[in-house]
Amino acid sequence: MNRYLKLVHMEVDRFKYILAGLMSLTLICQFGAVIWWTKSAVSNRESGAWNNGGSMAYSLNPSHNGNLSFTEVISNTQFLFMIPILISIGVLAIYVFLIWYRDWFGRNTFIYRLLTLPIARRHIYFAKLTAILLFIFGLVSFQLALIPVEKLIFNLIVPSDMRDPSYISNSIYANPALGMLIPWHFDSFLVYYVIGIIAVLVIFAAILIERSYGRLGILYAILYLGISAFLLLFPMVGLGLDNLNGYLYPNEIFAIELVMCVAVMAVSVWLGCRLISKKITV
Amino acid sequence: MRRYWISIVLSAFIVVGLGTYYVYGAVVDFPEYKILKVSGDVNEGSKISVQGNFSDGGGNQFLIATAEGSDYPSRRSIISQIFSGSRSWMNDQVDIRQMLNDHRSFMRGKGNFTSFYKDEEWIIYADAVLNNSFGVKPEIVLSIDTLNQTSGVVKHYETIVEDPMDYSQIFVEDVQLIGEQIHMFINQRSKGDLNGSAVEYHDYVVDMNNGTLINNARLTFGDNTKDNVELFDRSIMNTIYSASSDHAILIVYDEQKRVNDYMGIIDEHLYSYAYKTGVLTDLSDTMLKAGIDDIGEIRLDGHILTILNYEEDFIKLSRYNIDTEKVTNEDISLSAQQLGAEKIIMGTTKNNKLYILFYKNDIPKVAVLDTTNGAILYTGEVVYEGEASESKWTMNTEGRLYMQIAD
Amino acid sequence: MIEVVDIHKRYRGRSVLNGASFTVEKGQITCLIGINGAGKSTILKAIMGLTPLKSGTIRIDGQPMDKNLYESIAFIPDHLTMPPGMKLSEGLRFMQDFYQSWNANRAEELMKFFSLDQTERIGNLSRGTAAKFNLVLGLAQDTEYVLMDEPFSGIDMFSRGLIAEVFSSHLIEDRGVLLTTHEIGEVEHLIDRALLMKDGAICRDFQCEQIRSEEGKSIVDVMREVYQA
Predict the structure, then answer these.
(1) Nearest chain C CA: its distance from A90 CA (Å)
(2) Is residue C123 classed as helix, strand or coil in its secondary structure?
(3) How far C194 CA lies from chain A's nearest CA (Å)?
């Protein structure tokens, strides 16, 4: 257990600068967007354009009385908010692959060192998996932590007589990307992120297949990805869920889907551990 | 231990951050709108839900308010969205819901809710499929399943109706059992016609014991050979689809077209088809004599036709008995002023009660009346419940307000 | 004793190892000799469990390869296998974290011997320096066996001299060493036993002293016999 944790820390340590970079990017983009938009909205209102019946074109959803609410800020800065989120998702997606491949390619093939450590090799697999999860949830938590700070910035810029109150839940949902990243309901959160974790597990298994089987490895890996994707998607699209006359009832279809998810997860983990222990080659 | 600070801080941050958010989220939620009783019996208001919008700077939020609280369909957790979304049309009908519960295996693969018939002894599902692919002789296949509730015996028949005419779509409107004969009331449209598709209704009568086609009654209406006239029709079946009924109601109207625009309805007819006798009766004149001059929103329950008419400033309910050809009970008629409303938005009837949605002073309100005597049983209004400081929104009365009554 | 018994391996359709068998004794320096691509590195990797075999067995002190045996057998590959972002001190600490057989004092000793700067980053090391650090990582462990893959390749003359000194020192003394090379001139005077590889198997296996005294041949002579026949 101890050694597994040490490996996790090592993986985190190797990525720390990129992680910090993504967090900084998110902070700068989002704070910048909030400050810039709120300031221009306030000056727009103060300049009296609104009072003179001028168009409230500065906002997508202005309120009746011209007051600003934090929800409005989130609704109007969607694009700038989403850019760092999309970049982070892209970087993490690439790193799901790189966390393995960086140990093989390049001048110093660290995988030699890892595979000859006096530890069960599955610890290497789980350490890399844990690291990826820590990065994902770390960025999500960071995003979450930014929001009350952004609201505070908003409160500092907008004088209280111009402010309308807002519900945090409404504010978050005003940006659909945030609504998907940090859904209000915990069971939605579980569903989204478990799907993500299954994807990571399947990709890890595919990578280890590719690394274990020489020239044909890449074909086997793609085959594995294809079969897994099929098994996971088929119940929802191929069993007549939306079909008027579908033979299976919806909750039976969901049960089948659940079984598929558990099966694909279990097989991917088992395969990954087994390949790295017995079949992998440098 | 100190050199592991990055990993430790990261892990702790995740646990604290996400933990706080989801624990907090379980406690605090979205703005609550409720239907509060203003007068009358609070139980009468328990089945009402009012759908509408409010705006909060993030756009218009669609919500459904009831006496218990509010629901935000677009914000539901994904699991409830998936579960309530699939084949919800089946679960929405109370009679079908019951059948799904009681006879799970019989109900498999049966998706057309108008194809059901249920009484004390029998459950019948009768569907019709059109086989008209190119090069094959067109035919209609009637696929019938019967379940005897006492014995549990299930029978299946497939009866072919050969039809030389080229139909493009058929739809089973209603299924009834008269004696030992299954009646399938089917709407058939033929393909591309110059004057719009010709519509036909057929009453296929099938023997329940062996599936043979006993009769094929064909009902046609109107004269669509006239120039510039297009026929439109719709059917009114029992509000509870699987209930037994002696009649099917059809509304047919001719609409005269001018080049480039519609002139409007010229001629509207209400027909009643009696399954037992096969007779098609034009009710329009008798209804006019009984004082009903506008069909408005119409529902059929057994023999009773409920006709609801409303505009912004009045609402009127009439009940017409098809058998006796007379209006039963007094009409209920209310003006907006009598209700205390600025504008009446909609009305609907259910289980001998009339529900009215209206608003005054920007607040949506509801009223429930007993249709037998016109007495007002309940009134309520939609108010915002929550910390007074947080919001002063009212439900948007400019947007679409809608009311639904639960079973 | 490391026992390699009849190992076979195919790679890209070719038979890389075709029934190679030999043993490595403690206290002896054994050298695997062969032309490029003969499969020498593959044998070392196979012993270390870094690549699977089609058939055959490998036993270390009578036991098949197991994660705990990594404490008893060190592998020094032909290139440095630590992340370039790490400092040398961090690399040493990494080894200490995971190996109970890590001898921190000896590591210090070796670092001084090779004059290595602990604050330097691995990615910035020159070829020769990297090779020296590689040796530190392998030799500072108190293992019974050491496997070395091409320890001298591409190293400058003076560094080679230093490394050769290590071979004759107490650091190697009781251990069983298996090394590979194709630069036989460098190691001839260091090794006790030679294994000549040809066609995926061991075709000559002899003690160097013995061959010299009995047949008056040097290793290079034997190689000429085998490879230029």
Answers:
(1) 23
(2) helix
(3) 26
Burial-class residue A118 by CB neighbours within 10 Å (0-12, 13-18, 19+).
middle
**Is A13's CB within 8 Å of B17's CB?**
no
**In a shared domain, residues B231 and B127:** yes
CB contact under 8 A, B7 and A13: yes
Shortest distance, CA B59 to any CA of chain A (angstroms): 5
DSSP A203-264: HHHHHHHHHHSGGGHHHHHHHHHHHHHHHHHHHHHHS-TT-TT-SS-HHHHHHHHHHHHHHH
User: Which residue of chain A comes nearest to B74, CA vs CA?
Assistant: A173
Q: Is C77 touching A (CB cutoff 8 A)?
A: yes
Same domain flag for B145 and B190: yes
Total CB pairs under 8 A between chain A and C: 67
Tell if the CB–CB gap between A144 and B391 is shorter than 8 Å: no
* Residue B216, domain extent: 106-239+244-282
Task: Say yes or no: B150 and B266 in one domain.
Answer: yes
Of the candidates B4, B6, B58, which has its C-beta nearest A174's C-beta?
B58
Q: What class does CATH assign to C2-227?
A: alpha beta
Q: Distance between CA A176 and CA B274 in Å, rounded? A: 54
For the entire predicted model, the pTM comes to 0.89
Q: Is A122 on the interface with C (CB under 8 A)?
A: no
pLDDT per residue of chain A (282 residues) written in tens, 0 to 9:
899 999 999 999 999 999 999 999 999 999 999 999 999 888 887 776 555 554 555 666 666 666 788 888 898 899 999 999 999 999 999 999 999 999 998 788 999 999 999 999 999 999 999 999 999 999 999 999 999 999 999 999 988 888 877 778 888 888 989 989 998 888 889 999 999 999 999 999 999 999 999 889 999 999 999 999 999 999 988 888 878 788 888 888 989 999 999 999 999 999 999 999 999 998
